[in-house]
Structure formats: C-alpha cells, structure tokens
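2024-03-11 09:14:02 DEBUG pipeline.ingest accepted 1 chain
2024-03-11 09:14:02 DEBUG pipeline.ingest length=158
2024-03-11 09:14:03 DEBUG pipeline.predict start
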Amino acid sequence: MEGGAGAIDAPPETEAEVEQEEKGDQGVPNTSEEYPPSEVFGGDKPTPQLDIEHYKKKGIHARKRKYEKPGKDGDAPVRDVVIFRYKMKHHLPGMSDDMEHWYEFWYFTRPNRKKDGDKYEQHLRAYNRGQKWIAQEEGIEIVGSSRKIIPYRRQAHS
C-alpha cells in the first residue's frame, strides 16, 4: 500500500445504489444530443442591452480647485474651503477624508523644516497663503516676515 489515505466511499445501502454502482457512468443519460445548444442557450437572438450613457472620465488625478476662482468643474475655490474650515471648525460636507487631511496639513499646520524636508518651501507658501486669506476675512493686516505673523486690526478712517 502506498502512503496516504485514499478516498473511502460508504458502502451502498439500497438496491438502487448497488445497481448504480454496477452501471458506473452509464446510469447518467446523455441529453446533449436531444437538446441542441441553440435551444439550451436561447437561440441566436442577440442578448438585450441596456441603453446607458457612456461614462466620461473626469480627467487625471490632480487639483481641481483654483486658488481664488471656481474650478473648471464648478468646484469651490481653495480660498473658500480654507475660510469655511477656519470659521466652522470642520471641512465642507462631502469632502473625502484624504482631502481633509491634505487641507489640514498644507493650510493649518505650521511648516517645519525637519518634518517637511524638501516640501518645506511649498508648505510655507501654502500656509502663508491660507493665513493671508484668513487675515483678510477677519480684517487683519499681516506685517513682518512670513515666519512670524503679527496681526494688526485695520484702523477705521474718519
């Protein structure tokens, strides 16, 4: 006997099973000659098709918003998104989690040379841009270097 267990079938219990075992595969009738494939698979009729509009891809994965004007697909400007987040303390409804994290990082997290690495200058520009938009919305002038922001209230002219 070779190693390993073979398939063990239960002994036949009824006379029909005994007869089936003796016949082997001959007990199963061959019906493929009785029914032609055209009858089994629905004939030569074309399959019904749904009338669906062609899906138009929106484009490449890239920034769809412009800084201060509406985007080409009607997306809100970045400025409005940043100001909304600043005033409401939460992001626009329907914004994806990854985009929320993206706006938090670039516009609401202070740039850090060590953490940002080669993206530091880009982060600094984005952060300063966001702070400028917020200051304009609040009526505050930003004076001084971009590393140190000193807000001053605008004086009412009489």
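2024-03-11 09:14:41 DEBUG pipeline.report Residues 2 and 8 are 15 Å apart (CA to CA).
2024-03-11 09:14:41 DEBUG pipeline.predict end
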